[in-house]
Amino acid sequence: EGGKSADAVMDDTASSIQARLPTPFALDLCEVRFPTLYEESMNTVVKQECLRYNKLLWEMESSLKDFRRAIKGFIVMTADLEAVGKAMFVNQVPELWSKKGPLSLKPLSSWYLDIIARCAFFQMWTDLGRSPPVFWISGIFFPQAFFTGALQNYARRHNEEIDLLSFGQQLLDDIKDPSKECMHPHETGVVVYGMFLEGARWDRVEHQLEESKPKELFVEL
Question: What is the spatial distance between Cα 86 and Cα 62, in angstroms, rounded to a whole number?
């Protein structure tokens, strides 16, 4: 007794998400800062990523606004809006959003923080006006395009056939915080962070894979 009604809880949740919703990227400005260049495929990658996140942010902004109006009786509560409210009430990502968002199994509260972090990474990239020295691979919506772009850059720079190229990996285990310690782009490849190991861990002293520590399912690589 005395607790909030379901409608009040859903409205509060919608309000809190609205308040922290990232601003969509200015695509016209992205086009100016990242023109399509033969020698820099990452310009295409960042523009495609910003467009994908914009589609999600536009959907979230529109559905949250309409849901809050519908729950107050100003407009008709459609089936889609009702589904958004029910999902928020049980801390699940509404299907309207998940269909336009990156693949994820996280509950709404964690998923939303992840979206904020992803948008912050691409905001940093667009503000920088060029490719950053290190990339948060977990924050990229479509990583296949990113890796293809890295191969294209190498192939064009070294006049190689892209079909004959493959990736090699080098663990930079002397670096603890890549986003702060990596100040210059790699000469021939890309530096990424945000990968994880399952069922094993990387020993920074012995520079090799080791057994996982007790109760550690995943470790950042």
Answer: 17
The answer to whether 106 touches 98, Cβ cutoff 8 Å, is no
User: What phi, psi does 40 have (nearest 5°)?
Assistant: -140, 90
Model pLDDT for residues 94-150, shown as the tens digit of each residue: 999 999 999 999 999 999 999 999 999 999 999 999 999 999 999 999 999 999 999
- Whole-angstrom distance, CA of residue 147 vs CA of residue 140: 11
Within 10 angstroms of residue 191's Cβ, the number of other Cβ atoms is 18
Residues in the chain: 221
DSSP output for 125-194: HHHHTS--SSEEGGG-S-HHHHHHHHHHHHHHHHT--GGG--------TT-S-HHHH--S--SSS--EE-
pTM here?
A: 0.88
Question: What is the DSSP pairing of strand 192-193 with strand 135-136?
Answer: parallel
Gap between the Cα atoms of 114 and 122, Å rounded: 13
Q: Are 122 and 136 in contact (CB under 8 A)?
A: no
Position 124, amino acid: M
Cα 221 to Cα 203: distance, rounded to the nearest angstrom: 10
**95: which 2 tokens?**
């299907």
Report d(CA 23, CA 123) in Å as an integer: 10
Q: Is-contact 71 82, C-beta < 8 A?
A: no
What is the C-alpha to C-alpha distance for residues 82 and 9, in angstroms, rounded to an integer?
14
